[in-house]
Design a protein that fits this description.
This protein is an all-beta fold and 116 residues long. It has no helices and ten strands. A six-stranded antiparallel β-barrel has the order 4-5-6-7-10-9. It has a two-stranded antiparallel ribbon with strand order 2-3.
């Protein structure tokens, strides 16, 4: 008989000293493929911890002078995808600070420079 694993849900996840939660304040992350994502859920399925997320479909440099901010993973993002995706928690490279811009539809995203 095949092993059946329950799906567990977590309210937060500690990755390399950062706390990730499924909120705009604590859930914006940079994934290993360079994508910026908003964490929507944290689950454990078949012995693996996964984040369930939505990608920001708009991403551009926060500034271009004296160098492109994308070189240091600083972006303006917007327009969340309607599709949910999942990835192993080891695909999270950095937790980011997400600050709303004037229009309220876009955000400045900057990686955390320190840990807890």
């Amino acid at each position: 008989m095949k092993n059946v694993y329950p799906v567990l849900q977590y309210s937060q996840l500690n990755i390399s000293g950062f706390i990730i939660k499924p909120t705009l304040r604590d859930g914006v992350v940079l994934l290993s493929g360079g994508e910026i994502a908003l964490t929507r859920n944290i689950i454990k399925h078949e012995k693996e911890i996964l984040i369930v997320y939505q990608l920001f479909s708009v991403r551009r440099s926060l500034h271009d002078y004296p160098f492109s901010s994308s070189d240091i993973d600083m972006y303006i993002v917007g327009k969340l995808s309607t599709k949910l995706k999942s990835a192993r928690c080891n695909k999270v490279e950095k937790k980011c600070v997400c600050m709303p811009l004037k229009d309220g539809r876009e955000f400045a995203v900057v990686p955390f420079a320190h840990k807890e």
